[in-house]
Amino acid sequence: MITLVIYDISDDASRTRLSGYLKQYGLRRVQYSGFRGELNANDRHVLAQEVPKFLSAEKDSVYIIPLCSSCLKSISIASKKKAEFYEDERVKIV
Fold it and tell me: Which residue of 23, 60, 64, 77 sits 20 to 30 Å from the alpha carbon of 15, by its own alpha carbon?
């Protein structure tokens, strides 16, 4: 299932380590603090268990959001990037 991971982490080193960790899962950066990619339920569970080690401040947070097929169909992205940057044809570029 396509999974969106977004985060707000105040410590630069922790934020950098988390982004590297997410890349190990095969997730791809879509925003400075946002990644997306295909994760199965087990990988999402393991990821949810591991991300707290990257949190250091009370205000830090990580959201792990699975997106079903119908959710993907309702996504619209406003972007100056070329449409071929977005590999999922279910996402509408406006």
Answer: 77
The predicted-structure confidence for 35-92, as pLDDT tens digits, reads as follows 999 999 999 999 999 999 999 899 999 999 999 888 877 777 776 665 544 555 555 5
Neighbours of 3 (CB within 10 A): 21
Cβ atoms of 2 and 67 within 8 Å: the answer is yes
The torsion angle over the Cα atoms of residues 13, 19, 21 and 23, rounded to 10 degrees, is -150
End-to-end CA distance of the chain: 24
**Spatial separation of the C-alpha atoms in residues 69 and 90, rounded to whole Å:** 8
- Looking at the DSSP assignment, which residues form a beta bridge with residue 64? 5
Q: Are 51 and 41 in contact (CB under 8 A)?
A: no
Q: Is this model's pTM higher than 0.70 or not?
A: yes
Domains of the chain are 2-68 (3.30.70.240)
